User: What shape does this take?
Amino acid sequence: MSARPKRKMTERASGKLPPRAGLPARWGVYLLLLLLALLAAPIPPLINGYHRRETAIVHGLPPHYLGGQQPALGVNADLTRYRDDDALRAALDKIVAAQIGLVRLRLPWYNLETAPGQYAWGKYDRVIAAAHRRGLRILALLDGTPPWLRPAGEADNLVTPPADFAAFAHFAGTVARRYAGQIEAYQIWDQPNVTPFWGNRHVDAAGYVRLLSQAAAAIRQADPAALILSAGLAPTTLYTSTAHDDVRYLQEMYDAGVAGHFDVLGAKAYHIDDNNGGLNLTRLLRLHQVMAVNGDNAKAIWAVGWGCHATPPGWQGDQPIWPTRSETAQAACARADLQRKWTQWPWLGVLIWDQFQPAIPQDDPLWGFALLRSDGTPRPVYTTLQEVAAEHTIGSGAYNPTAWFWHGNATNVRVWGEKVSARADQLTRLRWYRPTGQSGEITLSPGETVLLWQQAADKAQSVTLQADPAPPTLFVSRDLSPWPLQLASLFGDAALIVLLALCLLFWRHPAWRHTITVGVAVIAAIFVQFAPGTGWAALPLLFLLLATLYDFELALFLAVFSVPFAWQVHPLAGLLISPLELFWALALLSGGLRFLMNLGRAEPGRWRRWPALAWRWLRPTHALDGAMLFLLIAGALATVTALRKDVAPHQFKITIIEPVVFYWLLRSSARWPDSRAAWAGRRWHLVHALLLAGGSVVLIGFYQYALHPAAFLTEGVFRMRAVYGSPNNLGLFLGRLLPLAVALWIAPLPRSSAGLWPRWRYLVMVVLIGLGLLLSASRGALLIGVPLSLLFILVYGGKKARWPVIGLLLAELIGLIPFLGTSRASGGTLTRRLYVWRAAIRMLHDHPLGIGPDNFLYLFSGRYLPYPDFPEPSLSHPHDIILHFWLALGLPGLIALGWIVGALYRLGRSLLALPRDNPSYWLALGLLAALVDFFGHGLVDSAYFLPDLAMQFVFIGALLSILSEFEVEGTR
Assistant: This one.
C-alpha cells in the first residue's frame, strides 16, 4: 500500500478530514424496490396476454348449452331464387358438400300472408321440403309486416314491426303448425336495435321483448320441439334514438324480462373493426358476458350473420360500406374464426355465413360475402369452409355426434382439449383408437359420463371413434389452471411479506420505514389490479389497507396518482371498481381513522366535547367550501328530479359525491393537530403525484403506439389515447397539468427547503405532458386551454416567466405544423359545436329546470338531433360548461357554478398578492393557470362531469383553499 492512502486514512481517523460521504439509508431500500420492480416487470404483460388468450374459455367439464348441439356451420340462402327443381337440387348439393348443416331461410310475413287470413305457401313448401329431405336443418327468420298492419306513416317500410303484435304471434303460430318437424328453429325479427328494422321510430328494447314473448308462446304451443332465437342484433357502438349499441340493447332486453322467452341468442358477427378488436367475432364475447351477468349463460349464441367481406376480383360495382380484403384473406379469416369457435368457445353454436348466392343485382357489393359467384362457381372461402369442416375438429364443449361429426357409426375426429369424456342416452359400446397406439373400449350406461382419456391441451390429436348401437355425446374440457395469474399473485404476496418483514426490522429508522411502506402499497396495488380473482386479491388488498391506514399521506398520494385511471375498472368482490374508487375509499378510511385519533388526543376521555371539536375541523370557512356543499345539494335535487332516473344516480355518485367528499377530506385534514405541520411538505407530494400520473399516462400512450400504431391513426394524424377511450379526454386531463408543471419549472426558488423537486424534473414533466397534448391533437386543448393558461403565467409570472412561456408557445406552433393539411385540421368542429349548442338551448327552452345528470345523450339523439345524419349523434354532453351545469343540475347547478367561480376568483386574488419569493406563490400560480385551462377548454368541451376531471378539479380547489388558509390568513 502506498504512503498517500495510508496518510488519508490516518487523517480521517484523527478527525482532520470529514468522514467519507456514504449513501443515505433509504437508498438501500430504493435498490431493493428497484430489484423487485425489475423482477415484477414481466408479470403484467404476462397476465394481460393470458387474459386475451383465455377470455370466455370454459375450463372443466362444460355445461350443456341449450341450442349448442347443432351443426357447426350454416348459411343464409334464398332458396326461392332457384325456380326449377334441378337448380334447387344443385344448390342444395353444394351446401351439403361444404359440410354446411343448417340453412337460414327468411319467411317474410308480407309474402306469406298476401291478404288477411290468406296464405301463399307454395314456393316455401317446395324449398323447405327439399332442404329437409337433404338432411339440412332450417332456421326460419320471421319478419316483415303486411301493408294493412303497418303503422301510420310507414306504408313503404317492409321491415317495420306491426301495429298489432298479436297478429304477428298468430302468423308465427300458423307457420310453426304447418312446418312442425321440418323447421328446427325460428328467429323472431331481425336487427330491432337499429332503424329502419324497428320502424321510423325510437329503438325500443321493451317493445321488442313484447313482440318476442307473444310470438314465442304461439310457436311453442304449435311446435314444442322448436328452438326460439332472439333477433340477430346489429353490431354497432352507437347509442342514439335510432341505433342502440347491441351490448347495451341486450341488457335492456334482460331488464324488460326477456330471459324466459328465447332458447338461443341471435347475433351478428361481421369483421368491421379488426384493428381495435371491436366489431368482429369477439363482439360475441361482450354479449356472452351480458348473458352471464343475468344468469343466462347456459344458452348458446348463434351468429345468424357472420363473415368477412372480400370484393370479387375486377369489381366494377358500387363501393362496399364494409372493410374489404382479398379473397385469400377472407378465407383465412373464416378459418381462424372456425378454429376459435371449436377450440375455445363452447357457448358459440352455429356460425351462419352471411350469403350463399344472393338474388341481387351484379353491382351490389353484398356479393363480397357470397360463397358462390353469380355463375355458381365457388369462391376460395367456400373451399376453405369445406376443408375446415371436414377436419371434424372439436374443442371445449359438449358435442352431439349426429349433428357435428359422426357419419354412420364410426368417424375420425381431431380433438382439441385436455379431457375427453362420453355420455350416452342408452346402453352403448364405445371404442376409440389413437395414432399413438392407445385404444380403449367401454360400455356406457344411460346418463353416465365417463372419462375416456387425457392429453395435452395445446394441440389437436386425431382419434377414431366407433359406437354401437348409437353414438354418444362427447365432452371435451380444458382444465388448464391459470398458472400465470397464480404465479404472479404468489410472487406479489411473497414480495409483500419480504417488505413487511423489512419494515418491522427497521421500524426505528423513519427513512427506511416510510420507503418500505410506499413499496408495500405500490406492489400491493399492482397485484390487486391484476389478481385473477377476489381470493387472490385478498392478501395484497390487506397489505394495501394496512399500509394506507398507517400512512395517511400515502393514501392521499395514491388517490391523487390514480385520478387518470378512473376508467380502468377491475372486478373485485363482485363489483367493477376502478383504481380511483379503490384509493379514494382507502384514503377516506385512513382519514377517518386519523380524524378519530386526533379527536382522542385533543380531548382525551372527554367524549362530550368531540362533536364541537369535530365541527371546528369540518365547518366551512371559505366561500369555496360553501359552494362545494351547495353543489352536493344541487346534484341530489337534480338526481331525484331527473328525466331518466336509471342513469342519473351513477353520475351523481362518481362526479359529485366522491369528489366533494375527497375535497372535504383534504380541507379538514389540514386542520388536524398532527397534520398541520405535515401540510408544508404534503402539498408538494400531492402535486408531484398528479404530475407523475400525467407523465405515466403519456408513457403508457407511447407504449401502446409501439405495439399497435395503426390503432392510433385517425383523421390523418396519430392521436394518442393512452388510458382513455378518446384523445380529447386525454387533452382535457393533460391540459390542466402543463401550466402547473411550467409554473414550478420556472419558479426562481431554492429547492432544498421549499419541498420542490430539482428544476430538471419539472422540465421532464413539461416535455412529457407537452408531447402528450400535441399527440392527443385536441383542438380545444391546443388552441384554447393551453395558450390561455400559458398567457396567464406570462402575465403573473414576471420577467422570469417571459422567455420560457414564449418559447413554449412557439414550440406549440411548430408542433402544430404537421397537422396542417390533414382532415383533423380542416374538420368543421366549430360548425358542429354551434349545432350542439343550439340543440342544448332548445333543450333548456323545453326543460328550464334541467334534465338530470347523464341525461343529455338520451334527449339529444332523439328530437334534438340537428339533422338525421349528424356525424356525432351519440354525444353525452353539450360541449359547454355553462350549458352542461344548467342541463345536468338545473338552476341550482348554475348557481353552484357561479358560486365556485366567484370563490376561486377571491382565492386567486389573495394568493397572487403573496411575495414571489414564497414557494406558495408559484404553486398557486400553477394551480390558477390550470383553472384557466379548465374554464377555457370547458367552453367547447366537457369540463367537469367525468370522474377524473371532477376529482382533478376539486383537488386543485382544495389546495388553493389550504394555501389561502395557511399563507394569507396566517393560521399556519
Notes: DSSP finds 34 helices and 25 strands in the chain. The first strand starts at residue 73 and ends at 76.
